[in-house]
C-alpha cells in the first residue's frame, strides 16, 4: 500500500514539474512598449545626416519634416493624438508625406540649441518645410511644440494646408472647403 502511495506521489510530482517546465518554456515574453513606434514612419533620418540628405535630394525639392525623439512624451502625444486623428481624416498615413527626423543625438549630446542655430526653431516636436534650391536649404515655415499650449489637430492641419500637402476636407469659418 505504501508503495502505491509513493508511486502515486512521485507521479504527481513528475506531472507537476513537467507542467511547470512547459509553462516557463512557453510563457510569452513581455513586449517592450518604449521601443514600439506610435505611428510607423516610412523612413527615419538621423539628425547628423539631415543636411547631406536634403542637399542631395535634388534641386527645387521641398521636404516636410517631423523633428522628434522616440522616447519623448510630447512626441508620443503628437503621434498618438494629433497625427492619428489626421491620418483617419485624410485617409492615409501622414508619414507617407512627412519624413521623420530623429533628434535623439542632440539630446544625448546636450546640443539641443543646435536646432535654433541650424533651422530657426527651438523645440520639438516640430513640423518643418525645408526647400532645396540649387543646394541652398531654406526653411519655408515651421510649427513647433509649445509646452504652454500643446499642438492641436487644427494647427497641424492648417500647417499642411499652408504647405499644400493636405488632401482632405478643411473646415474654414463654418464652410467646408475641398482641398485639391
From TrEMBL:
InterPro entries: PedC-like. Gene3D superfamilies: Glutaredoxin (3.40.30.10). Pfam families: DUF6568. This is Uncharacterized protein.
